[in-house]
Amino acid sequence: MESQPPQVEKSDVNEEKKLIEDKKQRAKKIVTQVFCQLTKGCGREFCTNKDCASNKMKFKDRNLTEKEALKIAIQFVKTMGSDSNKIKLCPSATIPKTIQIEELAQLSEATKEDFEKRFLEVFSSPFTLSFSFLKDREIYLKTDTHNIDFDKLSEFYKIFDAKFDEEERLKLFTTAGENFVDSFKKESKDIEEPWILRSFLINFENPDLMSPSFESIIDRIAYMLESQLNKKNIDSHLKEVLQGSDQEFIMEELKEDMTVHETYKIQSDILVYWLSKLDKERFLDHIRKFQNILSINIFNESFNSENVLEFLDTLESQESRAFIRLLSLLDIYHGANVNKEPEDQINYLEFNNDGFNKEMCLDVDLGGHYEVWVRAMNFCDRNDVPFRKYEVTTFCNYPWLLDTTAKGEIMMTEAKIYMQQMADEELANIFIQGLSSQNPGINNADMIYLQFKVRRDFIIEDTLNNLIREGINLKKQLKVEFEGELGQDEGGVQKEFFQILVRDLFKPEYTMFNYFKDSKLVWFNGETFESNIKFELIGVLMGLAIYNGVILDIHFPVACYKKLLNIEPTLDDIKELDPSTGKSLQYILDCDSPTLQDDLYMTFIYEYEVFGENKTEALKENGANIFVSQENKQEYVELLIDFIFNKSIENQFEAFSRGFHKACGGDALTLFRPEELQKLICGSQKLDFEAMMKETRYDGFEGEEEVLNWFWDILIDEFNEEQQKKFLFFCTGCAKAPVSGLESIGFIIVKNGEDDEKLPC
């Protein structure tokens, strides 16, 4: 019996035909869309797609014929879904029209309802906002400039301010912000491009951000920026490793995330570059807005500082996350400030937050933050993974936030950790070896402290002999004994030791330093006959002074501290050390005269005095025959700066730096700016006796007695600065204030009996 062919239902045939027809129609629609995109464009005001004719800047097939475009469109449909399909389709969603300069007059006359509508249209869309208020619409996709007309943007905000009260403005920004977040997700493909960062700068220009009411608005913007500059899951992976998870598996995940991170870093770098080009006043205005909100966070009773102290804390509370986002935002601005030209930089103190340093630091375990920070860096070093500050939550990642006092506290914590480690090791040796019982002649204090025994008349020689002892460990607490003198060192003997030693080492007869009369500063003498071991000794002394909390009367310029932190000195450092030379070099750089070479008649030779005799040094090969001109004057200045601060003192400074880092070479040192390191070592020149008076304690007095009023009137109002310094030296052994100010010295006035008991008989 023959088999019959299967019967096909008519309905199935119709359904298959319908599917084929639908597929043809979709293909035709896509072919039409691609064809139109390649020939006419998508019609968007500012298209970012380089495969679209509406992209006025980057369309790659500008000379494409219609026949070629049709062929490409058909091929596009055939290869849809494959890797060979390289054409990007423009989004079909309608994008609101941007606000440009010419519309401002119209908006000024608009009703509140019409203005509100335009505001919400533009500020709800990251795409639209990014292309509003452009200075030059012809270069809308360039990333070497933010291209925002800030003057016109300020004019827009003034119109906005005039039409709505603060409550209305807050409500509008809140609504726009919520829409912005939703649009941010929908426009994710376009948002991969860096020009979207303009939308954040436009929002940051809003003057209302200074108001505490707008705290949530800043946080929302910071949240979106954090998402845009996403660091992915690097922080969570690092935490998992440190918590004891499978390190090998996590390390693979971590390295994959590092690759993703590099993509986002490009946008971060562009944003930093744009911010570095903001004018000084506008840049400072942004910083103060963020600092204001940061202070509100700190003084907010609901803010729990514990949430940002714990290294592995999940930081899930709203207040804590907002706090960290603000720090991250300010960190971007700090990076931009560093990249600015020196004359355009704002003072680094603008990044210190007084509220944090004076209030929150009282409750913050900065030592704990230091330990966490070091652990994370050590982990990254061991696993050959770059350390990134966003990986862990610790205030050490934001050193610009901390003032010198807070950083000094971190450094003292580092010192205590080292000292405790050394003491523990030595005590363990005593216990294991039984030294106490077997060798009663050995002083156990030597095991715990760094003990120096010196003679006053031979203090330099004796100190050097102490330092070259075999097995000496400088990271212990220093105890000093003057030979033949009774007394136990509770800090006073130590201070006197440093004072005498510094005074003697800087005596002119040692010729170790050159003194600059105009600036009253000293610099290393590269022609000295003194051995480098003495320079190393001075470096050791400076390091020991930091770790032992002693202020030194040393007069190095900031350039010295720059070099200790591996920062190259600049012309500003020449101006500080030798004002006349600095002024001359600045004149050369500023002079635009075509006859500069003839006017100067100066070659690449540096003349200086050595022990009363003139000496010359060629700054480059054949320098005596190369004249300074407009073309090479910058090179001349740079070579001269390099010679003065580096080449001429290379051996002496190397020994000095070696000694300093031998005594104080911990990770905490990297948190400091040169100016802060100088202040930590040399103290503060500012003597605020009124602050000291407020913190003074009294023993035997009530604090309101007339004799106390006389005392403070004389000290504050009648003493000149030199007398005040002498008074301070008499009381503390130092004529400068500690970095934390005079209020921190713990000044006490004690009543020594009744007045009539001190009268003569």
Structural features, described:
With 761 residues, the protein is mainly α. The protein has five domains: 10-78, no CATH class; 97-222, no CATH class; 229-402, no CATH class; 416-564, Hect, E3 ligase catalytic domain fold (Alpha-Beta Complex), CATH 3.90.1750.10; 689-758, Hect, E3 ligase catalytic domain (Hect, E3 ligase catalytic fold, 2-Layer Sandwich). Helices cover 53% and strands 5% of the residues. It has 32 helices and eight strands. Strands 1-2 form a two-stranded parallel sheet. A two-stranded antiparallel ribbon has the order 3-4. A two-stranded antiparallel ribbon has the order 5-6. A hairpin with a 4-residue loop joins strand 3 (513-516) and strand 4. Helix 4 (112-123) packs parallel to helix 7 (166-186), helix 10 crosses helix 14 (318-339) and helix 24 packs antiparallel against helix 25 (579-590). The radius of gyration is 35 Å and the shape is elongated. The protein starts with 9 loop residues before the first helix and ends in an 11-residue tail after the last strand.
Main-sheet strand order equals: 1-2
Give the C-alpha Rg.
35 Å
| Average predicted confidence as pLDDT | 81
Count of helical segments? 32
Q: What class do helices, strands and sheet pairing give?
A: mainly alpha
How many structural domains can be distinguished in the coordinates? 5
> Cα distance, first to last residue?
151 Å
Unreliable stretches: 231-263, 301-316
Number of beta strands: 8
Describe the global form. Answer: elongated
Tell me about the largest β-sheet.
2 strands, parallel
Helix coverage percent: 40-55%
Strand content of the residues, in percent?
Answer: under 5%
